[in-house]
Amino acid sequence: MTTQTSLNLGTVPWEPALGRPDLLGERVLSQLTVWSQNDPERTARIFVCEIDPQDSDTAAMSQRYEIPMHDSVNCVLVAGKREGTERTAAVAVRADTRADINGAIKRMLDVRKASFVPMDRAVEESGMEYGGITPIGLPDTWRFVMDAAAASDEWIVIGSGVRASKIAVRGSDLAHLTGADIIEGLGR
């Protein structure tokens, strides 16, 4: 199989992610390096682009760089309790949907009430900048689940661990490399 060396998505220039370590969060770079040793073919299909950090929020990024919302995926950290024990997950849903916190995600966590993890805790526990949180490089303490729609997309744009860039990866590659649980209906 031929390795893809470029990507045409939106108006930004995409480069192989491992060729631009300066655009990746520390944990993201570390995870990509491990993946490149274990699955170099899939890792070679991960790209990064530089963006203005002020445009890191998905809607602003999509508008400025002409990347359709349905090609972007948000990774949100959620938590809930059951019998005094906290249950957490990193949830990836397409940006043209909303994470179904009080429905599918609450059922998936098997809790009475699920909610977004506060920003300061999300930043501290992920080791990533707010607006750049991604499932790539998240600590193993976070279960990673992906909406089936995002996992089936050809290319998705996600955070890079920092606000100054975004990563593009095939949905199926992200699901494979992270060992994600794929669940229907996490986004609505």
What does this protein structure show overall?
The chain is 29% helix and 24% strand. It has 7 helices and 9 strands; from the N terminus they run E-H-H-E-H-E-E-H-E-H-E-H-E-E-H-E. It has helices at 26-38, 40-43, 58-65, 101-109, 119-126, 148-152, 171-178; strands spanning 15-16, 47-50, 73-82, 85-94, 114-116, 143-147, 156-159, 165-169, 181-183. A hairpin with a 2-residue loop joins strand 3 and strand 4. The longest helix is centred in the N-terminal third of the chain and has 13 residues, at 26-38. It is globular.
Features:
188 residues, alpha+beta, 5-stranded mixed β-sheet, 7 helices, 29% helix
Instruction: Give unreliable regions as ranges.
Output: none
Which strands sit side by side, in order, in the main sheet? 5-3-4-6-9
Order of helices and strands: EHHEHEEHEHEHEEHE
- What's the total helix number? 7
The average pLDDT value, as a whole number, equals: 93
Indicate the percent of residues in helices.
Answer: 25-40%
What would you call the shape? globular
Query: Structural class of the secondary elements?
Result: alpha+beta
Number of strands: 9
Rg: 16 Å
User: Oligomeric form of this entry?
Assistant: single chain
Sheet bearing the most strands, described?
5 strands, mixed
Strand content: 15-25%
Distance between the termini: 36 Å
Annotate the secondary structure layout:
Blueprint: E1 15-16, H1 26-38, H2 40-43, E2 47-50, H3 58-65, E3 73-82, E4 85-94, H4 101-109, E5 114-116, H5 119-126, E6 143-147, H6 148-152, E7 156-159, E8 165-169, H7 171-178, E9 181-183
